[in-house]
Every structure is written in C-alpha cells, then in structure tokens.
Amino acid sequence: MIEPRIEIASRAGVCYGVERALDMAHEAARNAPTPVRTLGPLIHNPLVVSELSQAGVDMADAVDDIQDGTVIIRAHGVVPAVIDRARAAGINVLDATCPYVKRVHSAAQKLVREGYQLIVVGESGHPEVEGIVGHADGQAHVVSTARDLDSIDLARRVGVVVQTTQTVGTLQDIVSVLVARAEEVRVVNTICSATQERQEAARELAERADVMVVIGGKNSGNTRRLAQICKESCERTYHIEDSSELDEAWFHTSGLIGITAGASTPASHIDKTVHAIEEMLRGSDER
Ligand code: SF4
Description:
Blueprint: E1 5-8, H1 16-31, E2 36-39, H2 46-55, E3 57-60, E4 70-73, H3 80-88, E5 92-95, H4 99-113, E6 117-121, H5 127-135, E7 140-143, E8 157-162, H6 168-181, E9 184-187, H7 194-208, E10 211-215, H8 221-233, E11 237-240, E12 256-261, H9 267-286
Parallel strand pairs: 1-12, 2-3, 2-4, 4-5, 6-7, 6-8, 8-9, 10-11, 10-12
The protein binds iron/sulfur cluster (SF4).
C-alpha cells in the first residue's frame, strides 16, 4: 500500500521581518527594562501573542497607555511621532520595524525632499501605510487602484513608493495611468517578495496535494489568502491556528499531505503540526 507523504511548501511561515521582530521581543523579555509591551499585536497570531505574554511581553494599544519600561515597535513600523512621544516620555523604544519597510520610509522621504508629489500605492488606513505617509510628513496621496488617481490633481513630477505587500500587477496598473498624466514619474519599487513567494509555493503544492493544511491566525489576512489559494486547487484544504484542531479523519489518503503557513506562523508551529500529523498517520497504521 502507498503511504501518505507530508510535504511543506518551499516557502512557508514567518518572513525575515517578523522573525526578527519576534527574536527582538524575546530578547527584550530577558534583558530590557520592564514592563515590556508591543504597540498593538506584534503578529496576527493569537497563539504567538499568548506565548509572548507568557514570556513577559504584553500588548498596549497606544503609547499614551504606557508609562514606563520598554515599547516594541512592530515590523510594519509607525509614524515617527509615535517614537518621538515614547522617547520624550522616557520609555525605552525597541524599533523592530522591518528593514524593508524602513527602505520605503527613506524612499518616501527622499522623493518628497527632491520635490516630487508622493503617491503611496497601498491600503489606506493600514498601519504600514500610515507609517510611510508619516515619514513623508503627511505629504502623500494613498491609492489602492488606478481609479483612485481620478480625484488627485497631479503635479508635473510624481514619485511613487509601494506598501511592501502590494502586487506588481497593482503597481503596474497605477504607473501606466501616471505616465500618461504626469511629465516625470519616478517609481521606487518597494514591494517585498515574501508574500508573493509564499502564495506561489502554496499554489504549486496545492496543485499536487490531496489534502492541504494551512497554519496561521484566523485573523491573519495573509494566512486566509493562502487558504483561499490552496482551496482553488485542493478541495480538502483546512485552515488551523493550532495543531490541536487537526482531525485524524482529514488524513485518510494515500497521497500527498501539503503544509503551508502564513507569514505570522513561526517554524515551531509548523514542526508541531507536522509531528501531530505523523502521529495520527502512525496511529491509523497500527489499527
Ligand atoms: S513581509 Fe517583507 S517587508 Fe513585511 S515584515 Fe516580512 S520581510 Fe519585512
């Protein structure tokens, strides 16, 4: 009889920026002035947030709710005023903004300094986008589709930066309208490939798998998107937050069991899930 096989997508789980932020938080729990708090959830994964809390890292909603100790800035960054306010209040600031997000901040600042009208391609209201606009002193227009440009009085020289999780297709649509309307268009492509790579790897695996397990927070947009992509080619796709949600009945197959995980799922959660599935497969073999 052919044994079922488990395969993990070639790109899955936490990206560089989130892993770095998690490492910084755990390190802060050991060595930084206490109490240690993150500004908002460090990661969209309730299990990780509760693990951090057990390690001594809690969460605050706003700088004004913090009086002492250390505050950790999340990977997608904040407006500079938040960091200034925390420092002025004597709070120790640990800036875990992802270096790729910092790259967007500097590109936005530079374009504004050089006199370009700044367009930020991204989701209005998203904390990362707010941080980018804040670094450009608020002198930016946020657009998520080419149509959003209709209401903007474009200058002669336009500069463009992009929220890291946007797609190349969206950027291309917007730039093609801009080049028709402005005299000079300067584009700094600040898209981070982490999200796209995870989606492509999940799609490739789901096309070959009998069953797909997607691990990550139910409140994590990128994990839900991964589950959606997998479901398109693998009907038996299950989105779990934790290995305790696994059901042995899902794995009655002789084919491939694929595993993927959102950008907010640490490697330890992937390992735990793989281990739990292996135990279930062993259990059904012995019966
Ligand atoms: S998705 Fe990219 S930019 Fe965002 S935190 Fe991860 S590595 Fe950094």
